[in-house]
Specification:
globular, 1154 residues, 6-stranded mixed sheet, alpha+beta
Length: 1154
């Protein structure tokens, strides 16, 4: 038994009064062995020299006393903590025995006598790891250093060289990589180039550079961040990638690298892993060889591209990937593709990972060598391309048919994955990249107060001295621009984009530390060094993730709640489309002229096609004489006259102009015009009124700067671009004032067709679709089938003939003065096309209305207004240029109904040719709608349009909604659920960047707006379809709340105050009913509902309720006329009495939530 006296004598001699108070404690007896070892270690320190001795002694103490420490109770742990603190104090006081000491402020190690320089401070040098690696506490030491790093964020060592900026993920995919590739014995890896700066030979820096990397997942945001940084910083011309692991949840915009065009080949649905992609600079002309690119049944992938640079002969690039499980017959597939490519007579370069280790003599390597010999290919790589703890292998290859084309090749260390990067440079000079400039107005030194002060001195009063209205506008522009240019001059700015602005110098230092560990691991193949490398790789990954999060959230905070700024930040994080997609050209000005010539010629080409069609089909149309049809009206004619406006009206219009719209050629934005109002309001009002008095639209307002927007498809095809006109801001103010007066005249005098829903107040795509689908459902309830024809007009906005439009305006009771104003508005218009800083010639515009103008949409509506009166036997409806015909009949009446449809289509064809509009038969669709048993009775049929037979299709898209033969909306629900999930996958990748408020904004805008589009049309779908949408909402809730896949979501949705999808659809239906009852929808919807007192004269308790139509079948009960009336009658009277739609919706939502 150990006595209290023995403990007192042994311990107090070394530690004195610090522990005298613990002598009487019984628990201290159990720590005697621990204390004895501690005293032995402290005494042995005097026999050690150097820092290694002190640290080894400390670790030895920890090993010896592990068992004793495990026996301590809570009080013993306190005692152990005290003793460890005492030990560190002793080490600090005895630092004269070593060249290193512990810093008293906890900054790690530094040299004695002077404070360390920031550039010499090391986060964790590999040599310091070596000093302690033999004492069994390596992992503890790593964790200790990491915690110290997280607390203080030390600067990293600056002695290393920057690496190939590799990525961070270490994802594993079963079956795609051998677990132990290459030889089992460790080989010297010094032959592999480890020049992490990727220094190319001096004589090849201007040559075309091509690289390949097996990246093992491009889906990670941090992974792609460093890849983008590497590709841009090292100026690769062509960068090929295997094992991208991409699928349909990742769109091209999410992995877009500025200045490069992406070509990708995913493995396919339900086949994870694999995947190829190629980044090629935009100044190369590239065409995809679809006939030889393929994914085999064994998952062997090959992506073939033909590349041309300047005046050099084209060459073919092939990227390949073969999983280890793919049999050797993949050689046959590659050989067949190679033979077809060789027939073109071009040089071929094949890069990729074939998982054939050429460092070993086996069946795979022999098959690949035989393939090279057969086709006279040269395999350029002779160094290991993959290094792990288990050995090295050469599985990434570069093969070429012309070795003389290659200037150099090498293998470069990469820490993106466990593969190194292989690269070659060609004996071809890379095309010179012209810098990209934009012309903008610089607001760096702009001050609204100073601008307004100087503007007040401008002599705007001299404008009244000029008699000609065009001179007045020119003088105003000169005075205004002279002052504005002093405060916000127009500058030509070179575009310099930083690929990853959130990567700080500290993170780059950490990358260098990571790369030092990678080099050391490659040299020694020591598992200890591999573990250190993996640790720092994860540190880089974590730091990039945190840095990007801080960067984005700081930008959002700096925006001060400005919605335009916030959406710019969101669109950078979540890109939806590439704005810089144009045809490949070394002459941007020539490209701009080419597009402008095409846009100008569209109208004349369409008019000629219409003339040719009318002659070919004998439609007997006289295109030289406008023949508009008169729309009958019950209202007495009232001439439309442009009335003068007040300053309050002008100010209200200017204040309502959106601030995020691009300015015209004068670079005057709406923001500037709003700032100038105290000095310019009177002058602008005077100019607008002079325009109305003189019936003149100013010459300076007629020149449009056109921005071509790629709609879809190949960017090399001009027909795939939509011209958007940017107009002067004062012209927009004038157009807005005219638009208000014009719409008031058309609505008051009932001049527009009832079922034309485009560009009209209270009308929308939802109201147009709701009316038509209700008509189809009621026909199904009456046991009829319906045939609907959806017409497609080609380039309708660009094809308007001005003389025909003026004739139609005259037919709508326009005064001569108003006609003269619109004639001035349409005549002598001109436009130019701008691509970046390149501007085309200014050309006259003789057809069409400007897309992007305010009056353009309503003028087009007037132009096609009489189209709906052309059909005689069919019903018709239209939304701008989307026109449809439909006819309901019993199955026995099919022949006569087809005849009626064809007759009306002929009438519409004649009308289009008269008005120089062109119907595209290839895009015109036909849909048969009815009950399944009735559709089976229909014999096969087709309709005729311009001698083209058009047969029915099972599904058509009308105004964004997929309509099927039974109006079940199954495919529509499936598609929107898929699109919403795809967008949520994208949002899920960036959710860590956004705070909850912004995340809610993004999900509401990008997901729920799409999910609820036209919901009153399809809310009568099946429960299984609604369950699909509920899963979308559940996923969105999990993203916001951070829940896992199988966590319960109902409580979370309630905490977000989200209604379930079923109740959300009820809320949307009730809101539409509220608008119908309060006449906030078109008359064709409001007239569908009548109260019971309007139907009969009997006085009952429910006479104020809506009359519910009688339906024969459950199909009729799906109509909005039935379910809307039934829903409205079920609502509380207090809620129904609310007149404001917003208040009604909010109160009803609260009721549904409770």
């Amino acid at each position: 038994m150990i006595s209290d006296r023995m403990i007192h004598t042994s311990f107090s001699q070394d530690f004195g009064p610090f522990v005298i108070d613990f002598i009487k404690l019984d628990f201290f007896k159990s720590t005697f062995e621990f204390v004895t070892h501690l005293i032995d270690i402290l005494q042995s320190l005097h026999g050690k020299k150097g820092m290694n001795g002190w640290f080894e002694s400390f670790l030895l103490m920890g090993q010896r006393s592990a068992m004793a420490v495990g026996q301590l109770i809570f009080s013993s742990v306190l005692m152990f903590t005290f003793l460890v603190f005492l030990l560190f104090s002793c080490l600090n006081n005895l630092s004269h025995y070593s060249n290193w000491r512990f810093s008293s402020i906890g900054h790690g190690f530094d040299t004695p006598g002077s404070a360390p320089e920031p550039s010499s401070m090391s986060y964790l040098d590999p040599s310091s790891f070596c000093r302690i690696r033999h004492f069994g506490l390596k992992s503890w030491y790593i964790r200790m250093k990491r915690r110290r790093f997280l607390r203080r964020r030390l600067l990293y060592s600056a002695n290393g060289t920057a690496s190939f900026n590799p990525s961070l993920l270490e994802n594993n995919l079963s079956g795609d990589i051998h677990p132990h590739p290459g030889p089992n014995s460790t080989s010297n890896s010094s032959s592999t180039s480890t020049n992490t700066n990727i220094s190319f030979p001096c004589n090849t820096k201007s040559n075309i550079r091509i690289a390949h990397l097996n990246i093992r997942s491009l889906k990670s945001r941090e992974h792609f961040t460093l890849l983008k940084d590497s590709v841009v910083s090292n100026n690769f011309d062509i960068f090929t990638i295997s094992e991208t692991w991409l699928d349909s949840s990742v769109n091209n915009e999410s992995i877009h690298i500025p200045g490069y065009t992406l070509y990708r080949q995913d493995r396919g649905p339900h086949k994870p892993g694999g995947g190829l992609c190629v980044y090629i600079k935009k100044n190369y002309k590239v065409s995809s060889l679809e006939n030889v690119s393929s994914v085999s049944d064994n998952n062997f992938q090959q992506l073939w591209l033909k590349v041309q640079s300047r005046c050099y002969k084209s060459f073919v690039i092939c990227t390949v990937y073969r999983p280890p499980s793919t049999p050797l017959n993949f050689i046959d597939d590659l050989a067949n593709s190679l033979i077809e490519s060789l027939l073109s007579g071009l040089d071929v370069i094949i890069l990729g990972d074939l998982n054939c280790n050429l460092l070993q003599d086996n069946a795979e390597s022999r098959a690949l060598n035989d393939f090279c010999s057969t086709f006279n290919l040269t395999q350029l790589i002779n160094q290991p391309t993959r290094a792990t703890e288990n050995g090295e292998s050469l599985i990434d290859v570069v093969m070429t048919t012309n070795e003389k084309l290659i200037a150099s090749n090498d293998v470069l260390m990469s820490t993106i994955s466990d593969h190194n990067l292989v690269y070659i440079s060609l004996k071809l000079k890379k095309p010179r990249i012209k810098p990209c400039y934009v012309t903008i107005r610089s607001y760096t030194n702009y001050s609204a107060d100073n601008f307004l002060r100087d503007l007040s001195y401008a002599p705007f009063h001299i404008i009244s001295l000029f008699d000609d209205f065009n001179d007045q506008v020119d003088v105003f522009n000169e005075l205004f621009l002279e002052v504005l240019s002093q405060h916000a001059p127009v500058k030509r700015v070179k575009i310099r984009s930083k690929p990853n602005p959130f990567i700080t110098p500290e993170i780059r230092q950490l990358m260098r530390t990571r790369d030092q560990w990678r080099k050391l691991a490659g040299k020694t193949n020591d598992p200890f060094h591999w573990n250190g490398y993996r640790f720092f790789r994860q540190e880089v990954k974590r730091e990039i993730r945190v840095a990007e999060k801080v960067h984005v959230r700081t930008q959002i905070l700096d925006s001060n709640g400005n919605s335009n700024s916030i959406w710019k930040i969101i669109n950078r994080c979540l890109p939806r489309k590439q704005q810089d997609s144009f045809m490949a050209s070394e002459d941007p000005t020539g490209l701009a002229n080419e597009l402008n010539d095409f846009f100008i010629s569209v109208g004349s080409i369409t008019a000629q096609k219409a003339r040719d069609l009318s002659l070919h089909h004998g439609l007997n149309v006289n295109l030289d004489v406008p023949t508009p049809l008169h729309i009958s009206t019950d209202v007495s004619p009232e001439l439309f006259v442009l009335h003068q406006v007040t300053e309050n009206q002008v100010e209200r219009v200017i204040r309502s102009l959106p601030s995020n719209k691009a300015p015209g050629m004068d670079k005057i934005s709406s923001r500037i015009l709003k700032d100038s109002l105290p000095s310019t309001l009177t002058t602008i009002t005077h100019i607008v009124n002079n325009s109305f008095v003189t019936n003149t639209f100013a010459r300076a307002w007629k020149t449009a700067e056109v921005t071509p927007i790629l709609k879809c498809g190949n960017p090399d095809v001009p027909n795939n671009y939509r011209p958007i006109s940017l107009l002067p801001i004062v012209s927009k103010v004038t157009e807005r004032l005219v638009h208000g007066q014009l719409m008031e005249h058309l609505i008051r005098n009932n001049k527009l067709a009832a079922h034309q829903s485009g560009n009209r107040k209270l009308h929308s795509t939802e109201t147009a679709l709701l009316y038509v689908t209700d008509q189809l459902l009621q026909a199904m309830d009456n046991k009829k089938v319906s045939i609907m024809v959806l017409l497609d007009m080609s380039k309708a906005f660009d094809s308007i003939r001005h003389d025909i439009l003026l004739s139609k305006l005259q037919n709508l009771d326009f005064s001569q003065g108003a006609l003269n104003w619109f004639q001035s508005y349409l005549s002598n218009r001109q436009q130019c096309v701008r691509i970046g800083d390149a501007v085309s010639k200014v050309l006259p515009l003789e057809f069409g209305v400007p897309q992007g103008s305010i009056l353009g949409p309503v003028l087009f509506t007037i132009y096609v207004n009489d189209l709906l009166s052309v059909p005689k036997r069919c019903l018709s409806a239209s939304y701008v240029d989307d026109c449809k015909l439909y006819l309901s009949f019993s199955p026995a009446e099919l022949p006569t109904s087809i005849l009626a449809l064809n007759e009306d289509l002929t009438r519409i064809s004649q009308w289009c040719c008269k008005n120089s509009l062109l119907i595209n038969p290839d895009k015109t669709k036909v849909l048969a709608v009815g009950l399944p048993q009735l559709l089976k009775k229909l014999s096969s049929f087709s309709i005729t349009l311009f001698d083209k037979e058009i047969t029915p299709v099972p599904v058509v898209k009308d105004l964004g909604v997929l309509l099927d033969t039974h109006l079940s909306y199954n495919q529509h629900i499936t598609e929107i659920a898929s699109k919403c999930l795809f967008k949520l996958y994208q949002i899920n990748r960036i959710k860590h960047l956004l705070d909850r408020k912004t995340l809610l904004l993004v999900i509401n805008s990008f997901v729920f707006s799409k999910l609820q589009y036209c919901s009153t049309v399809w809310s009568n779908t099946s429960s299984s379809n609604i369950d699909k949408l509920q899963k979308v909402q559940n996923f969105a809730g999990r993203i916001i709340l951070g829940l896992r896949k199988y966590d319960h979501i109902s409580d979370g949705l309630r905490s977000l105050k989200w209604l379930p999808i079923r109740e959300k659809l009820i809320l949307n239906d009730a809101t539409m009913m509220h608008k119908c009852i309060n006449k906030l929808v078109p008359d064709y919807l409001a007239d569908m509902f009548k109260s019971r007192s309007q139907v009969h004269n009997r006085q009952t308790r429910s006479s104020g309720a809506l009359d519910i139509p009688l339906c024969r079948l459950s199909t009729g009960q799906r109509s909005f006329a039935f379910r809307g009336a039934k829903l409205w009658n079920s609502l509380n009277d207090n809620i129904k009495s609310l007149k404001c739609p917003r208040n009604f919706r909010r109160h009803l939502a609260n009721v549904l939530l409770s």
